[in-house]
Specification:
The chain is α/β, with parallel strands linked by helices. The protein contains 20 helices and twelve strands.
Length: 462
């Protein structure tokens, strides 16, 4: 397997499942890892120096610490602007799966699921592909995979599965649509036909809270294990991976080590995105607004916990029922996980990318509740929190740098500068799609914004 994106999540999740399989005696598969952009140079260098090995620290809600060495990444490819090493590894006949971890904004999709060519990186990448070039500054996941497939086709290396390991809803289907459109726009009709016949893109749902490694982690790992590990990572003890069993060139026997291989990932995906991801953002935005720094602090704050609990109970569970999952139990497990004080997940990390999270995590629940003629009071608190958070950003009053790949800063400032910011936020088609400007949405968010203001005033006095 070749994985694109050597961040903490991949190393705490996919690489761990493969390590479990290796530990069980199945050594047929290994991982090669690379980044397609010059990110995390220090981590990549540390992994190379350590032969791909690193330590994973996990912490349970009961504060039980565990340390294990992960050795499933057998090859760490250095970053090259040309992506030559990545393309060669992806085109090798022995590579049967190319997987990747991408943020929601990194898919460059509009509300219709088409490529959004207003993004400069994407337009430049299509131009490079049209000229038969690969790599370059700002390469996108589509450009990288297109180059791999082009080389794979030329080498007659056989079919390959393209596997998403991230939070995008219907990620396999949407990536495949974006990739095929990218290849079509690049004008390579032969590659388009080959990709349609020789690739599969299963939908998948991944779950493990993996905060940025804190500065003190290295010393903690050394004290516990004796290893001075410059690439150590930390995460919660909970882990889950659900994949549609649609592979064209074989796969590891993941079912032996707890991966759920299913016909449809949709009910698991919806529960995770709406109950875990959206609630995570709710807690991060709310905590930031009253001066908290960490997710566990907000989870244990009575007013914030009630917002998150009511959002799931009142609006999400009715939308997702019936479900093969016990949604109320899942809600409680999620809040217990968020409350783990040892994880020390920052509001800064979780609050990021609101302009992708509103349409991806929150708008579907609003849309379904409105279509059913049901109230949206509890879910409306989330966009109201985001608007208050965005207004802090607009004034330069956030306590940290806000990162949002999907945000057009001019649009965001215009929302905050509007005579009626609630109306401006609720009228943004990029955030809300077909319900943008719906009077019921505006009314619900306006009412929720009043409650958020009361919450912030109460929080400021504590």
């Amino acid at each position: 397997m070749l994985h694109l994106g050597l961040g903490s999540f991949h190393r705490a999740h996919q690489a761990v499942y493969l390590q479990r399989l290796i530990d069980a005696g199945d050594t047929r598969w290994s991982l090669s890892g690379a980044n397609i952009r010059p990110d995390m140079a220090d981590v990549v260098a540390a992994l190379q120096a350590q032969g791909g090995r690193y330590t994973l620290e996990t912490v349970s809600p009961a504060l039980e610490y565990r340390y294990e060495q992960i050795e499933s990444i057998r090859e760490v490819l250095p970053y090259e602007t040309s992506l030559a090493g990545v393309i060669a590894r992806g085109a090798a006949p022995s590579t049967r799966i190319v997987s990747f971890t991408v943020t929601e904004a990194g898919y460059y999709l509009d509300t219709e699921g088409k490529l959004d060519l207003s993004f400069g990186d994407l337009a430049v990448d299509i131009g490079r592909a049209r000229r038969g070039e690969a790599g370059g500054d700002g390469v996108t996941i589509y450009g990288a995979v297109c180059a791999i497939l082009r080389a794979r086709k030329a080498a007659q290396a056989g079919p390959v599965t393209l596997l998403n390991c991230d939070n995008l809803r219907h990620n396999g289907d949407r990536f495949r649509a974006g990739l095929l459109e990218f290849i079509e726009r690049a004008g390579d009709t032969e590659l388009l036909a080959w990709a349609q016949s020789n690739t599969a893109c299963p939908n998948a749902m991944v779950d493990r809270i993996t905060p940025r490694p804190p500065p003190e982690l290295r010393a903690r790992v050394k004290a516990a294990t004796g290893r001075d590990d410059a690439a150590a990572i930390t995460g919660e003890s909970f882990i889950q991976w659900v994949i549609e069993d649609n592979f064209v060139a074989g796969r590891p026997d993941w079912g032996r080590v707890g991966v759920e291989l299913v016909d449809s990932v949709q009910p698991y995906e919806e529960a995770k995105i709406r109950i875990l991801n959206a609630t995570h953002s709710c807690i991060a935005w709310a905590g930031t607004l009253i001066g908290l720094s960490f997710i566990h602090e907000g989870t244990h704050h009575a007013a914030i916990r009630k917002m998150a609990f009511d959002y799931v109970t009142d609006d999400v569970i009715p939308c997702l029922s019936p479900s093969p999952i016990d949604l109320a139990a899942y809600r409680n497990v999620v809040l217990d996980r968020f409350g783990n004080p040892a994880i020390r997940d920052t509001n800064q990390r979780v609050a990021a990318d609101g302009f992708s999270k509103i349409p991806g995590f929150i708008a579907p629940t609003v849309r379904e509740r409105l279509a059913a003629g049901q109230p949206t009071d509890s879910v409306a608190i989330l966009p109201a929190l985001f608007l208050a958070f965005l207004q802090r950003w607009h004034r330069g009053a956030l306590p940290y740098a806000y990162q949002d790949q999907g945000m057009d800063e001019a649009v965001a400032h215009a929302i905050c500068n509007a005579a009626d910011p609630v109306l401006a936020l609720c009228s943004d088609a990029g955030l809300w799609g077909a319900i943008a400007g719906d009077a019921r949405l505006v009314e619900a968010v306006r009412s929720a914004s009043t409650r958020v203001a009361t919450f912030m005033n109460a929080g400021a006095t504590k």
